[in-house]
Amino acid sequence: MASRKSLQANRANGDKYSVLLPTYNERENLPLIVWLLVKYFGESGHDYEIIVIDDGSPDGTLEVAEQLQKIYGDDKMLLRPRAKKLGLGTAYIHGMKHATGNFIIIMDADLSHHPKFIPQFIKKQKEGDYDLVSGTRYQGSGGVYGWDLRRKLISRGANFLAQVLLRPGASDLTGSFRLYKKKVLESLVERCVSKGYVFQMEMIVRARQLNYTVGEVPISFVDRVYGESKLGGNEIVSYAKGLLTLFATT
Amino acid sequence: MATGADQAVGMSLVLFSLLLFTYYTVWVIVLPFVDARHVLHRYFLPREYSVILPGVAAVLLLLCIGTFTAVILWKNRKPKKTD
Amino acid sequence: MTKLLQWLLGVSLLGAVWALVAFDLLELSLPRTYREVAWPIPLYLLVSFGCYSLATVGYRVATFNDCNEAASELHEQIKEAKEDLRKKGLKM
C-alpha cells in the first residue's frame, strides 16, 4: 500500500485527484461525464481516478459503469456500489475509503458540472494552498443555464439570506462542485449531519469554523440535460429549516 | 449576460428599492429638521404613518411567510402520517 | 459563539444606544428634534436593510449569467462523446 502510494506520489507533480461520482439513475449521463473527465484529465496530465458510487439504481447505471471500466481500465475507473439509496454524506465516506488520491473532487454526475473546470480548480488550489476550492455560480463569469426568472429570484434570495445570517466566506453555499484535500474532507464529513441542499452548505460553514481556507472558481452550471431538477415549496422550507439550524448552532 | 426580461425585472427591483429608501429617508430623517410650514411637508403623510405603514407591511410579510410554511408543512403531514 | 448569539449581542447593543438617545436616559438634554428623529430609528434601519436586500437581490438577478455558450458547447461535446463511446464498444 505504502509503496504504491509513493509510486503515485512520484508521478507528474506528485498529486493525485480522486473524483467521487455518486449516482442514482444516471445511465444516460454517466458515460458522458466519464468521457469528459478522461478528456480533460488527459489534456491537463494530472494523475486521477474516478470512483463511481452507485446507490442501487434500477435503471442499470452499474452495468454501464462496468462497461466503462472495461474501456478505460480499472486503475482509472473504480466502482464502489451500495445496495440502496443512502445519504450523500455516507456516499462520500464510502467513496473516500477507497480513494488513493491526496485530493478529492466532488461533483454531480448529471452533467450540470462540467469537467473543464477541474484544471482551474487545481490551479486555484495550488495558488493559495487552499484546503478546499469551491465552484461558484454566483461570481465573476459563473452562471446557470436553464433557469427561469422565478428560479433566479429564489436562488439569489436564498443565497443572500444565507450570506447575511452565516457570513460563510464563500459565495456559493449550496453548490456541490468542489475540490478538497482528502484530510479536510474526512474531517468535514464526519461533522456534517444535514441532508440535501443543506449538506453542502454545512460543509462550507464547518470549514470556516475549523479555519480551513476556501478558494473559489466561477463555474457555469448547466441544469440537467436529461431529467429535471425541481425547486418547489418543500425544497424552500427544508432549506430555510437547515439555514436556521446552522444559524443557531454554528 | 442575462436575458432582457430578467434584466428588466432585476433592475426595476433595484430602482424601486432606491426610490423607496430615498423617500423614506427624507420622511423620517430630514423632515423633522424642516420648518413645519415648508412646502416639502405636503408630499408626505403625517409622521405617525412613517411607523404605521412599514409596521403593517412587516406584519403582512410575516403572515405570508407563516401561511406559506404552514401550507407546505400541512401538505407534507397529510399523505404520510408517519410522525 | 454561534451566529445567533452574535446577532443577539449586536441587536441589544444597538437597542441600548437607541434607548439612551430616544428616551434621553443620560439627561443630555438633547434638542427635541433629535429625539423625534431618534425614536423611529430601529424601524428606519429595518426598512433600509429591506431596501438594501431587495436592491442586492435585484442586481444579482439582473447580472446572473445565462451561460448559453456553455450549454451549446456541452451539447456539441455530448454528440462527440456518444460517437466516440460507440466506437469504443459501449452499448447504451
Features:
heterotrimer; B: 83 residues; mainly alpha; 2 domains; flat; C: 92 residues; 0% strand; rod-shaped; DPM3 (chain C); Dolichol-phosphate mannosyltransferase subunit 3 (chain C); transmembrane helix (chain C); membrane (chain C); coiled coil (chain C)
Notes on the structure:
The complex is a heterotrimer of chains A (250), B (83) and C (92). Chain A has helices at residues 2-10, 29-44, 61-72, 88-97, 118-128, 149-166, 182-189, 197-209, 233-249; strands spanning 16-23, 47-54, 77-79, 103-106, 132-136, 143-145, 178-181, 214-218, 220-222. With 250 residues, chain A is α/β, with parallel strands linked by helices. Chain A has a single domain (2-146, 173-191, 203-230), classed as Alpha-Beta Complex (Spore Coat Polysaccharide Biosynthesis Protein SpsA, Chain A). In chain A, helix 3 links the parallel strand 2 (47-54) and strand 3. Chain A starts with a helix and ends with a helix. Chain B is built from 2 helices and no strands. Chain B is flat. The N and C termini of chain B lie far apart (46 Å). The longest helix of chain B has 32 residues, at 49-80. Chain B is 71% helix and 0% strand. With 83 residues, chain B is an all-alpha fold. The relative contact order of chain B is 0.06. Chain C is mainly alpha-helical and 92 residues long. Chain C folds into 2 domains: 1-39; 41-92. Chain C is built from 4 helices and no strands. Chain C has helices spanning 3-22, 32-38, 41-62, 68-87. The model of chain C has no long low-confidence stretch (mean pLDDT 90). Classes of the chains: A alpha/beta (250), B mainly alpha (83), C mainly alpha (92). Chains in contact: A-B, A-C, B-C. The interface between A and C is medium-sized, with 39 and 29 residues.
